[in-house]
Amino acid sequence: MVGPEPFRLEGDTLHVLDQRLIPRRIVYRKGRTAREVARLIRRMVVRGAPMIAIVAAYALYVQALRNPRKLSEGWRALKGSRPTAVNLHNVLEEALPLVERGASAEEFLRFAREVEERERRINERIAELGLRFFPRPMRVLTYCNTGMWATVYPGTALGIIRWAHRRGLLKHVFVPETAPYMQGARLTAYEMQIEGIPYSVVPDNHIPFLMERGMVDVAVVGADRITSDGYVFNKIGTLSVALASKRFGVPFVVAAPSTTFDPNPYSDDIVVERRSDVPREDYLYYAFDITPPDLVGAIVSERGVWIP
Ligand code: MRU
Predict the structure, then answer these.
(1) How far is the CA of 289 from the centre of ligand 1 (A)?
(2) Are residues 115 and 157 in the same domain?
(3) Would residue 68 count as lying in a domain?
(4) Is ligand 1 within 6 A of the CB of residue 47?
(5) In this structure, which of 38, 59, 286, 291 has its CB flanked by the most CB atoms within 10 Å?
(6) Is the shortest distance between the CB of 287 and ligand 1 below 6 Å?
(7) Is the full-model pTM beyond 0.85?
(8) Given this model, what pLDDT does residue 3 score?
(9) Is 224 a catalytic residue?
(10) What is the per-residue DSSP string for the chain?
(11) What's the structural domain count of the chain?
(12) Is 2 within the bounds of a domain?
């Protein structure tokens, strides 16, 4: 892997890459307790559905090492840090029996490593399976950032794009800026640069126009939650990609690990985050939107391809 690592564990401290500063500066923030890591997640220092879950698993280890009596409290802080992406909640539910029986720090470390390693294997499989949407050298449009800081290298949607590039099946990647945090312009563009993949950053409002011009052969995006009935929660703007894809006949593909699957159907009770750190009081920023199944061409997970 090339590029700064998303986090590193040094003794009893987790050092988390501040993704808000990439690519201008490479800065790591300390997470010494589960509460501190929860704060880093809430403040978008670390983001991306699978990476939030991985970092949370390591946060439990650090907590178990430093102050196991506060494990339940730390677990709850993590659980409340970001509500929409389901990976965090899936992993925390998986860890709950360890928390409840006060497992040893070593057990938490083993758990965290397994969570991370599982995600790596899954992503490699998704990258392989996603190649079926690249029958020839393609011009692809992605959205937000689904690469080595959002999950484990090679990424989900970006994993497919990387694999396609290696196999000579990629002509160009269009990278929408993804306002307001600019995950596309800053993170995805940087990842493309590092790997020498040809790309252009485009303002978010260019997406339908690029498709109308016939400049996009396939759209591949990630997800933060996929309900059992096929609703895709992802970075706000994904719904616009899906609508434009439908209108202009571009295949719309969602790449996500099974750890992003919500076993329950869509419900209004699922919290769609709104960000409070807006530049002006009169701004309204939702973090995610919801793409209904009839707009989703295919969902690629490590288990196969699902047409919802
Ligand atoms: O708010 P973010 O940056 O955490 O949103 C991230 C996304 O929407 C990604 O597309 C999603 O988490 C998939 S990452 C493999």
Answers:
(1) 11
(2) no
(3) yes
(4) yes
(5) 59
(6) yes
(7) yes
(8) 86
(9) yes
(10) --S--SEEEETTEEEEE-TTSTTT---EEEE-SHHHHHHHHHTTSS-SHHHHHHHHHHHHHHHHHH-GGGHHHHHHHHHTT-SS-HHHHHHHHHHHHHHHTT--HHHHHHHHHHHHHHHHHHHHHHHHHHGGG-SSSEEEE--S--STTTSSTT-SHHHHHHHHHHTT-EEEEEEE--TTTTIIIIIIHHHHHHHT--EEEE-GGGHHHHHHTT--SEEEE--SEE-TT--EEEETTHHHHHHHHHHHT--EEEE--GGGB-SSPP-TTS---B-S--SSTT---BSEEEE-GGG--EEEETTEEE--
(11) 2
(12) no
